């Protein structure tokens, strides 16, 4: 089965989770350089294990993804040379550009989450319900 979670994908998912956790803690603790670097290393290795080495290489070296790849790797470089604020900003831009092809799939997935999906689909109804239509 193609979508089956193998042991390698489970480890990759765990590494991505740790990468996000360490990056979040690094930002929360005033851009701690060590935590941000660990978060990047865990996240990159987790993506490589989740997608596979060849697919990850194709993702980063695809001609349409050069701008995102360069921005992401430049952000990692800035973190390593002690410019964590600039590095995080450049990395976030790189991630958005690099994974822009996945946004439609992410949107469909988020719409299927029970309460969160309804909030995303009907934000105007939610605003009217909380603040009421005062006239």
From TrEMBL:
This protein's UniProt keywords: Golgi apparatus, Membrane, Transmembrane, Transmembrane helix
Cellular component annotations (GO), alphabetically ordered: Golgi membrane
Domain of life: Eukaryota
Main location: Golgi
Species: Abeliophyllum distichum
Keyword Membrane: yes
Descriptive protein name: Got1/Sft2-like vescicle transport protein family
Subcellular location as annotated: Golgi apparatus membrane
Bilayer topology term: Multi-pass membrane protein
Family: Belongs to the GOT1 family.
Transmembrane parts of this sequence: 12-31, 37-60, 72-103, 109-131
């Amino acid at each position: 089965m193609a979508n089956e979670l193998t042991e390698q994908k489970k480890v990759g998912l765990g590494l991505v989770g740790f990468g996000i956790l360490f990056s979040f803690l690094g930002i929360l603790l005033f851009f701690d350089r060590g935590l941000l670097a660990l978060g990047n290393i865990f996240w990159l290795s987790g993506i490589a294990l989740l997608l596979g080495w060849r697919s990850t290489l194709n993702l980063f070296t695809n001609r349409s993804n050069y701008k995102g790849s360069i921005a992401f790797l430049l952000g990692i470089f800035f973190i390593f040379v002690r410019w964590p604020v600039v590095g995080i900003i450049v990395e976030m831009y790189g991630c958005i550009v690099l994974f822009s092809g996945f946004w439609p799939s992410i949107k469909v997935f988020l719409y299927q989450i029970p309460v969160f999906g309804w909030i995303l689909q009907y934000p105007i109804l939610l605003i009217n319900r909380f603040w009421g239509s005062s006239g």
